[in-house]
Write a structure and sequence with these properties.
Mean pLDDT: 92
Distance between the termini: 66 Å
Strand content: 15-25%
CATH architecture of the largest domain: 3-Layer(aba) Sandwich
Number of helices: 14
Radius of gyration: 24 Å
Number of domains: 2
Largest sheet: 4 strands, parallel
Structural class: alpha/beta
Helix content: 40-55%
Oligomer: single chain
């Protein structure tokens, strides 16, 4: 073959190779649950049972993805959001998650709610290498990328939050006599540990009573009577919404007025403060990382304007005092961001990689100054909160944004 011709053939081969490798780079890569047209997302949440107040989160997320689909989907793909009721029951959670994975064949399980339920499904999902993505619980153990690389949190950890309350008490009421009411599971025990860690050596003298209750109890009135008898001047309420409302209401019925601090998971005006009675809830403290949909200070906030428009169109008649509607929107917006970052590589491994690569992401609903950051060694996206006080029919923020970072396991 003449030299010139041989060179031309060689050049053509190089060009052909380059074109082939270029198309390989541009290829779409999918795992089960993703295709050219669809992304299947699985979810479990208690639409019934003792924690059914959280059901609005799942409804909000379903509505959010309807909105996304109406806008053309994510990178041209429609989101198929499949959500089931687990009734806040670990055995039911396992059953429903197996159905999502083995029957519905979802790409990820997103924002499953509750510490007991997530604990029950964690090993199964990690063994199958399926993302347990942005879990709706602040247990500290979700930030353990070394042992559970397929599980990542979303909201601030309960230990971080409890440490912030402890820091505040040490500064404002260092001689307080503290009673702690907590749910007898990982959720409540995380708050208990964060409080003790935050109080340090002073905890032994400040904490005069630790009282636990079971999620299966219909009422916790007898626990409140017992706590009152110990005569603390601060009551830390580490309870889910139904029991937080009962506590605030019962203390008022007893004519007892300790300083009450309620966990962030139970700050909903609609499902906690209103049932407890607005008069009874005056002066209760908590901490927030998200905006309050019922607070007029956010009327002209661009992010909350979008949230309001979304609710008016996709959840008409929804109670905007429910914090679950703010939570669900923020979590869904974070998932949408991650899926967008995945581009055409919709493998489960890439979903986790992108979820662990968020830099200063600010969903519309987070307080100014609170940002989402993750890395390969930090699976706790939000770790900042601001103290607030219930006044009238709403929460009022005060003080600075406080960080309660807890290192990964």
């Amino acid at each position: 073959m003449p030299f010139k011709l041989r060179t031309a053939v060689l050049s053509a081969a190089v060009v052909a190779c380059a074109a082939a490798s270029g198309s390989a780079f541009a290829q779409k890569t999918y795992d089960t649950g993703a295709s050219d047209t669809e992304i299947k997302i699985g979810n479990i949440i208690p639409y019934s049972g003792p924690a059914s107040a959280y059901g609005s989160i799942g409804k909000t997320e379903a509505a959010y993805f309807r909105m996304i689909n109406d806008q053309g989907g994510i990178n041209g793909r429609k989101v198929n959001f499949i959500t089931y009721d687990d009734a806040y029951s670990p055995p039911k959670a396992v059953e429903q998650v197996r159905k999502l994975v083995e029957s519905d064949e979802v790409l990820v399980v997103f924002n499953p709610l509750g510490t007991p339920s997530n604990t029950a499904i964690q090993k199964y999902l990690n063994s199958k290498k399926i993302p347990q993505l942005f879990v709706a619980t602040g247990a500290t153990k979700w930030n353990d990328p070394k042992n559970f690389p397929w599980t990542i949190g979303w909201q601030p950890s309960y230990q971080s939050e409890a440490q912030i309350y402890a820091k505040w008490l040490m500064k404002e009421k260092p001689d307080a006599k503290v009673a702690i009411l907590y749910q007898n599971d990982d959720f409540g025990k995380d708050y208990l540990k964060g409080t003790k860690d935050g109080l340090g050596a002073k905890g032994a003298s400040m904490i005069i009573l630790e009282e636990s209750y079971e999620i299966a109890e219909p009422t916790i009135d007898s626990h409140i009577v017992k706590i009152k008898a110990a005569n603390p001047d601060v009551l830390l309420i580490y309870a889910t919404p139904k029991f937080a409302a009962q506590t605030i209401k019962k203390t008022a019925e007893l004519g007892w007025k300790p300083l009450q601090i309620v966990a962030n998971v139970s700050i909903s005006v609609g499902s906690v403060m209103q049932p407890a009675g607005f008069d009874n809830a005056q002066g209760v403290l908590s901490a927030a990382y998200a905006k309050d949909g019922s607070d007029s200070q956010w009327n002209n906030d661009p992010g909350m304007k979008k949230w309001n428009e979304f609710l008016d169109k996709y959840m008409p008649g929804a109670d905007k005092t429910e914090s679950a509607l703010v939570y669900g929107y923020g979590a869904a917006q974070t998932l949408a961001k991650v899926l967008e970052m995945c581009g055409d590589n919709l493998t489960r491994a890439n979903v986790m990689k992108q979820a662990a690569s968020l830099k200063d992401f600010t969903p519309d609903t987070l307080l100014p100054g609170v940002k989402i950051n993750t890395s390969a060694t930090d699976f706790a996206p939000i770790s900042q909160l601001q103290m607030m006080r219930f006044k009238g029919q709403k929460w009022e923020l005060f003080g600075e944004i406080i960080s309660g970072d807890i290192p990964a396991d």
